[in-house]
């Protein structure tokens, strides 16, 4: 069980037990007193397990599934998460760092460092965490400045020339001022190579630093100022060849089979698949305790996030040109977000809780390009566009035409450089505010109902979103001699163009009843609702804003400390209905060669059980684990299948004709029900499992102190086993877009000095070198299925010192 590791972080009694304090409900509580399914992982546990990012968290929390593609984190809890690979839309699991929300899925791929603990709240957290916490919330709590000089340094080295260094120093510089500075560096060679060009694939180069200053106004009031910087520049996050999208269909064969790498972790491409990210975050947290009953907290945050992804969409080293295709994608994202949360906390004998106000704003400026290379397009584009007058921001020089200056404006190219074939520039804005609260009433002290507590909460949300997508697309005519065909958006920032704006309002209530007959038992029931507002996306010519997601969830749970707290056992069962799940996919066709579909799945239902346990049978032995059962299925979802050849058109290819082209897999062929294929053949997916929702997930962790001597220190042998049943990454439940059941094994041998200030460990992860995909994506332009992989076998040693 994940939270057991926190107890070990803080020392141990004779049976290894120590109380774990969390802030899952925005006030300090013992983990065993919180009527929420929550896992907590402390700093030492993260370090000992080699957890350096959110993807690794799924090893310790079975109900979490993590994948990534197109440089976006895809975190799922209980079958709910990020179902899109286009930027702009919101995640289904919220991420908070020291109480500040991180909106972009791309920004959730940064590393964990100098962390006090991570809390994983499962199920909708509508009352206290609000927007986009339908599946749950992951809260990262960083280490804070200390009242004495302290710090640590840690160095790890492993195969693939992996070198990780991390250090922090903290302490007071005056009676009223405490400082903390932490930094981390991660570098390693690639897990694969490009066999045609010999550059690394999936290497790593990350640097990050965080500075904190705590100003103590008095014993009752303080201000914590935090600044964080993250930098990444490497060839990581590559989408690898997983299989042909349309095996046996000649007209939809992969574009460059001769350039596809044969080894799964290798990748053939025209250019290195690169990620270049810069992120800055500034947070100010003010706390003021008026009295023993009243206190206030204000958390203000600003985040500036920039990233660029370059990848070859045909996953091949064969360079493709018009009229066939040009497939090097460049996605650039510039996001600025700001938020403020004001909380009032009250704690008395009968009532305790928190109420507050929240504001969030974000401006996104994503830009997508597809061309011959990441830096230029076909030379013929210059001459073709030069004959067209200019349109910028809806100012039309000549109706129905477009010019080179406009294309350069979208693509960001200098004069004389040929623009890419597809240039898309979007403006996606969000403004949200909310009023929220959660109160707990002690019914025993109020009206004499023994050991019962009533929990009442709710959140009113108001969110305004807008989307605008201006684009230029040059494709090819069936007869190349005819020349280019041009599609573009006119007046993109007016209602006559692609601009759309919508406002969403919702109230998400929460009601629960807790029974705590003694200090070792808590039983609870909670009804809660979740809400995720509709959103737009960056897609050429799109003006789509999908409907909001709404969830109704029932949960029962038990938290038990048994046998003189030798065994801790936490159980949760849940059942929910989810309406209008937001889902994104692409399908072949349209002027770009692909068409983005952003839609709502009408109804989804799920039920599940989660078990976490920790057993301390003797002083030198610690055992823990978790088990998650998830049955998450669509109840009503009528949609198009991107891998049905009848739905896929490509430039220059013949449509279905029962006389001249009777191929039943051809575009335009009749659907299964015999109806005409107008806009595609839709299928009903009721009964299919949802994305990233393995039925079974589990982990087991064991530690044995081989040597426990005051002079020699402690030598600990640890082992981990974690696994998941079959995972489908799409709603169509195909293993060609999924991963078979797997189990991973890790082990470590750790020495800790008698003063607990020096550590040394040897470790190995994924001992069997199991190869499994963490996500897949059907790439329409390349007619292949791409995949990202879980890490291979890694091993090395770690040295640490703290004072």
UniProtKB/TrEMBL annotation:
What Gene3D superfamilies does UniProt report for this protein, alphabetically? TonB-dependent receptor, beta-barrel domain
TonB-dependent receptor plug domain: residues covered:
31-136
SUPFAM superfamilies in alphabetical order: Porins
CDD domains assigned to the protein according to its UniProt record, in alphabetical order: ligand_gated_channel (cd01347)
Q: Subcellular location, in the record's words?
A: Cell outer membrane
Q: Topology in the membrane?
A: Multi-pass membrane protein
In which broad location class does this protein mainly occur, judging by the first location in its UniProt entry?
A: membrane
Residues covered by the TonB-dependent receptor-like beta-barrel domain: 233-767
Name of the molecule in the record: TonB-dependent receptor
Say which species the protein is native to.
Sphingomonas bisphenolicum
Instruction: Supply the gene name.
Output: fyuA_3
């Amino acid at each position: 069980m994940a939270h057991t590791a926190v107890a070990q972080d803080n020392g141990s009694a004779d049976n290894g037990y120590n109380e774990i304090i969390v802030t899952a409900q925005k006030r300090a509580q013992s983990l065993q007193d919180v009527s929420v399914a929550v896992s907590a992982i402390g700093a030492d546990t993260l370090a000992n397990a080699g957890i350096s990012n959110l993807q690794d968290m799924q090893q310790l929390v079975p109900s979490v599934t993590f994948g990534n593609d197109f440089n976006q984190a895809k975190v799922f809890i209980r079958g709910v998460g990020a179902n899109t690979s286009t930027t702009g839309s919101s995640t289904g699991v919220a991420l908070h760092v020291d109480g500040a929300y991180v909106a972009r899925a791309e920004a959730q791929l940064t590393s964990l460092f100098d962390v006090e603990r991570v809390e994983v709240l499962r199920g909708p957290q509508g009352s206290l965490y609000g927007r986009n916490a339908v599946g749950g919330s992951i809260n990262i709590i960083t280490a804070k400045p200390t009242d004495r000089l302290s710090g640590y340094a840690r160095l790890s080295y492993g195969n693939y020339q992996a070198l990780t260094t991390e250090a922090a120093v903290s302490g007071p510089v005056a009676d009223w001022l405490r400082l903390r500075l932490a930094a981390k560096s991660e570098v390693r060679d690639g897990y694969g190579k490009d066999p045609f060009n010999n550059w690394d694939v999936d290497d790593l180069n990350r640097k990050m630093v965080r500075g904190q200053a705590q100003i103590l106004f008095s014993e009752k009031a303080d201000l914590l100022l935090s600044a964080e910087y993250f930098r990444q520049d490497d060839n990581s996050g590559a989408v690898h060849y997983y299989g042909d999208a349309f095996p046996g269909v000649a007209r939809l064969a992969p574009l460059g089979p001769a350039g596809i790498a044969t080894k799964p972790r290798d990748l053939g491409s025209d250019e290195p698949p690169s990620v270049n990210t810069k992120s800055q975050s500034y947070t100010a947290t003010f706390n003021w305790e008026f009295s023993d009953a009243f206190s206030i907290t204000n958390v203000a945050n600003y985040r500036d996030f920039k990233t660029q992804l370059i990848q070859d969409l045909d996953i091949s080293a064969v360079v493709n040109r018009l009229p066939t295709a040009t497939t090097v994608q460049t996605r650039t994202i510039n996001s600025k977000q700001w938020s403020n949360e004001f909380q009032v906390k009250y704690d008395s004998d009968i009532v305790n809780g928190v109420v507050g106000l929240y504001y969030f704003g974000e401006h996104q400026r994503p830009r997508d390009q597809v061309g011959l290379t990441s830096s230029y397009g076909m030379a013929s584009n210059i001459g073709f566009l030069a004959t067209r007058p200019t349109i910028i921001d809806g100012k039309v020089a000549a109706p129905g035409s477009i010019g080179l200056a406009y294309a350069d404006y979208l693509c960001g190219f200098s004069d004389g450089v040929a623009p890419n074939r597809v240039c898309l520039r979007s403006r996606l804005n969000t403004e949200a505010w909310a009023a929220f609260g959660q109160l707990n009433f002690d019914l025993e002290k109020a009206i004499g109902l023994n050991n019962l507590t009533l929990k009442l909460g709710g959140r009113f949300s108001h969110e305004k979103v807008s989307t605008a997508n201006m684009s230029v697309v040059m494709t090819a005519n069936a007869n190349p001699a005819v020349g280019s065909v041009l599609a573009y958006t006119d007046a993109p920032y007016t209602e006559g163009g692609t601009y759309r704006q919508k406002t969403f309002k919702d109230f998400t209530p929460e009601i629960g009843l807790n029974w705590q007959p003694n200090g070792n038992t808590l039983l609870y029931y909670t009804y809660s609702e979740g809400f995720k507002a509709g959103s737009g996306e960056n897609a050429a010519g799109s003006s789509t804003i999908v409907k909001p997601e709404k969830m109704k969830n029932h949960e029962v749970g038990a938290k038990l400390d048994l046998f003189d707290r030798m065994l801790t056992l936490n159980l949760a069962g849940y059942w929910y209905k989810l309406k209008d799940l937001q889902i994104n996919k692409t399908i072949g066709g349209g002027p770009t060669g692909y068409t983005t579909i952003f839609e709502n799945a009408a109804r989804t239902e799920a039920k599940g059980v989660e078990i976490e346990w920790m057993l301390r049978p003797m002083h030198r032995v610690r055992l823990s684990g978790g088990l998650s059962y998830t049955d998450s299925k669509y109840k009503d979802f009528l949609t198009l299948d991107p891998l049905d050849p009848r739905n896929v058109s490509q430039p220059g290819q013949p449509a279905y004709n029962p006389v001249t082209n009777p191929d039943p897999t051809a575009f335009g062929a009749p659907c299964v029900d015999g109806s005409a294929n107008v806009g595609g053949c839709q299928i009903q997916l009721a009964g299919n499992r949802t994305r990233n929702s393995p039925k079974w997930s589990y982990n087991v962790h064991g530690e044995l102190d081989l040597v426990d001597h005051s002079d020699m220190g402690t030598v600990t042998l640890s082992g981990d086993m974690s696994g998941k049943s079959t995972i489908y990454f799409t709603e169509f439940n195909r293993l060609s877009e999924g991963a078979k059941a797997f189990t991973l094994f890790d082990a470590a041998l750790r020495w800790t000095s008698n003063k607990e200030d020096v550590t040394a460990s040897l470790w190995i992860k994924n001992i069997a070198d199991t190869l499994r995909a963490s996500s897949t994506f059907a790439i329409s332009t390349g007619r292949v299925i791409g995949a990202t992989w879980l890490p291979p076998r890694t091993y090395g040693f770690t040295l640490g010192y703290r004072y």
